[in-house]
Amino acid sequence: MSSTIVFIGAGNVATHMSKAFLKADNKVLQVYSRTIEHAQMLADEVHADFTNDLENIRNDADIYIFSVKDDALPEILHRMPKTGGIWIHTAGSVPQHIFAPYLTNYGVIYPLQTFSKNRSVSFSEIPIFIEASNAETRKIIESLATTLSSKVYYLVGEKRQYLHLSAVFACNFANHMYTLAADILENEGIPFDILKPLITETAKKITEMSPRDAQTGPAVRFDKSVMEKHLGLLKDEEKKRIYRLLSESIHKHATQND
Amino acid sequence: MSSTIVFIGAGNVATHMSKAFLKADNKVLQVYSRTIEHAQMLADEVHADFTNDLENIRNDADIYIFSVKDDALPEILHRMPKTGGIWIHTAGSVPQHIFAPYLTNYGVIYPLQTFSKNRSVSFSEIPIFIEASNAETRKIIESLATTLSSKVYYLVGEKRQYLHLSAVFACNFANHMYTLAADILENEGIPFDILKPLITETAKKITEMSPRDAQTGPAVRFDKSVMEKHLGLLKDEEKKRIYRLLSESIHKHATQND
After folding, report:
1. Shortest Cα distance from B61 to chain A (angstroms)?
2. Which tens digit of pLDDT belongs to each residue from A95-124?
3. Of A59, A89, B137, B249, which shows the fewest CB atoms inside 10 Å?
4. Which domains are delineated in chain A?
5. Residue in chain B lying closest to A245 (CA)
6. Which of B116, B108, B114 has the alpha carbon at shortest distance from B91?
């Protein structure tokens, strides 16, 4: 069963998801973005119309996918024209009932992945968490999500927000550690490439053992002389604070288990 | 050219490195550990003798590899008997001249990787950073290291310590983010497995783009309402502090480039 879809938003998630829907034989009718160039760029890629005016949004689609910054969603919903179909957002931390004042059939499709515009991702391996306002809508959203991925789970919003929170740690914060490492090497004229096998192995290890068991390094060994040296090498106060706080936290988690 | 090697230390690095040396047709003569069971366990694996008494260490090996906690190294060196051969340590943050009071031929073999006892690692892909006290010793250490890996680099200790520091961020701190994420999910009864595709993709992304460009999530978008919600969900003060500090740091790094 193929669906007709309107995308509200043209960012990273909208880009990857709309392409994946197109590939799965759904039809993207229209792309809305506040910035007309963004709307047009994505619309061209998925053979859709585009607009930067919410009033021009078509009312005859099966599915409306809202993929915008959480902060922006209430105002957009307030200004949306009446439509048929199902409204769906893609946010980890927004309850589905944000749609309740506007229509009865709505839900959530939350793909647990990090999307960047210039990197393609195979949607079929991404865990997708759905929610729906009623049983019939759930069936439709489930079958729609199943066109994207074989790993579709039903999860209520109260749980989904913790999933999102854990993803911020496992993805955004872990990635920021790479950024800080790159900074340190850049100051010394050492190419970041040298760290790639280590980063790859660190991520691979936790597919076989728990991250707590996988931990190595001076903090878990509580090797004070190394930690003191490292704090001495760090030039800026921010990195020092992060080093101290995370080393303490690693040590605390290691000793909790002893 | 095959070498005879004594290992002082039987921890994660010693275990992986001694096995790799054995595989590369070197001979491990003896393993020392303060704890006799640890010495014996590794010695059995690499077909070597073992001891927990520094006075019993053989004096006829080509190579002595010191792979112990940085804190423990000075005392061990102080108590080592006189030997021939070359003394080598495997530490990122210890200068090679720690050996200078004891002999003239010494150096460093620092493998940039995270080692856990129960996970095998292919040494041939690990970048190895060496240092040596003189040109002749450098040749020997270089050829020894080349039996382990095709990526052998000469790097002075002043630089090596920054490499080690960057590895603490990219590996130990990144891994700790996985641990904190696992904690959050465990509290909600959600299996950690669900995060594995995200962790894998986060590590893969930086092989193609810089970690700064790869960043996504609420902090880099400066999505205040999500960040406030997340702080509200976190129960313990430590995770709250980490969330705040890292979100601020991500935002700062993102805007520096604008």
Report:
1. 29
2. 999 999 999 999 999 999 988 878 888 888
3. A59
4. 4-155 (3.40.50.720), 161-256 (1.10.1040.20)
5. B242
6. B108
